[in-house]
From TrEMBL:
Positions annotated as active site in the UniProt record: E186, D342
GO molecular function: 1,4-alpha-glucan branching enzyme activity
Gene3D superfamilies reported for this sequence: Families 57/38 glycoside transferase, middle domain (1.20.1430.10), Glycoside hydrolase 38, N terminal domain (3.20.110.10)
Record bears the keyword Protein biosynthesis: no
Residue numbers binding substrate: R249, G266, W394, D448
Family statement: Belongs to the glycosyl hydrolase 57 family.
Domain Glycoside hydrolase family 57 N-terminal, first and last residues per copy: 6-379
Keyword Cell inner membrane carried by entry: no
GO cellular component terms, A-Z: extracellular region
Protein name (Swiss-Prot/TrEMBL): DUF1957 domain-containing protein
Biological classification of the source: Bacteria, Pseudomonadati, Caldisericota/Cryosericota group, Candidatus Cryosericota, Candidatus Cryosericia
An example Gene Ontology biological process: alpha-glucan biosynthetic process
Amino acid sequence: MNGRFVLVLHSHLPYVLGKGRWPFGEEWLHQIALDTYLPLLEELEGLDHDNVPATIAVGITPILMEQLKSPAFVDSFRAWVDVKRKALEQDVSRLPDAPEAHDLNMFYREELDQRLRQFDMLGGDLLGAFASLQERGRLEILTSCATHGYMPLFGNDESRRLQIRTGIAVYQHWMGRRPSGFWLPECGYIPGVERLLAEEGLRYFIADAAAFDAGTGQEHTGVHIPIATSTEAPWTPWNIGADIAVFLRNPATSKQVWDRDLGYPGNGAYREFHKRCEGSGWQYWRITSKQTDLGAKELYRPGEARKRAAEHATHFASLVRDLAAQRERLTGDPGVMVAAYDTELFGHWWYEGSGWIAAVLRDLAAKESISVVAPTTVLAERDLPLGRLRESSWGAGGDHSTWMNPETSWIWDNIRDDQRHFIDLLPQLHGQTGDMLLREILLEESSDWPFMITTGQARTYGTARFLEHHRKVRALFAAVEGTGQLPTSQAGSDDPVFEHIRLNEVWKA
């Protein structure tokens, strides 16, 4: 019996087009398109060209879809690449006077030219390239909440429905089909959300293994069903009621990549993310070791890093096979392993990561004991056991504290007030003002703003972005109620996302 390996990549960036430049703003999107999305597309096309039997799942949040399809992104990306190319040329005078440094500079110039050619060949349509791979059976693309709203902290189901329905509508608009899978933002689960997803025809979502409720059992149509232990839980998708399945991340595969000490990305041969050339921002150094001070980092060696990535891919594929074999010896079933990661880890944070993914998939395909398949393939093959989840997330401690804490509670007080007000006003909302209000309240609800504040990586930016959308929501409320004027900044092209979405189409009483 072949085991099943399900690789899920979750792609998300908040709405940043026209919202600042660097380090937080639209250059964030440009950098990740260059570092992650283009290399990943190239690797997936290579797998397709070589007919490697592997289908992976890629979640792309609706707000990211909207940005990737924006003409403003296409134009600004090309302009940004021109700036990056000039900075590379200027680096020659900034780098150590060593052949190794100059070779690395030329390596980056050639890579940048290659990425721009790839971008131009795609017509700047990265989302269309992902959609094409889905049509060819190489990908299964998941949707998510419209703006990655953290649903466990929402004040009502109506607001959750609007995030879910808008997310599905955006997906359908750009993909030309309805989605089967859903990525819960931040893996944030609250009992009952499965019913909301099932109402919209979704078949599965992803959750963290810690979400599994390893209780004593549950009643189902009068029959007592035993619940698996938490260690057994990640080896199969579960039917949690409402005719929807949950796939749980396998802790062993997650640890091998994410763990601060044991994870592959921390290896000394890989490119150092945090040390950049002053003036250009290009990264010319390798990690060297975790103990090495930034000032003492050694120059990066691409060939050595590629070799290390191939070794780590071989190790990971062997780990997957060994875990499945152990499972089969114990139970007679090698089970289903789910590895779920943020897409942006591969390439942006871990420069060699996209190549590592492709090497893992090629290795697993070559040995044939493990099949790399999409979640819907697994659902078609297996009868699912009954299970249940508890309220949880993939944040620190598995709870909501990454998004709700003393620094961010004021955000949630405002969001919940606005959600209640919006739902009360729904019967009288129509036309452009209703559509604009939907757009702004969805943007206000993004999980990114409290996350930025909590982590401290962009506290000022996260606060400013939340307040921007919150103020627009309040101004629109006043305009609808006749106590204020529609803000002039909201006319025309301000916040030009979800322009094809109509409130009366996503809201059903």
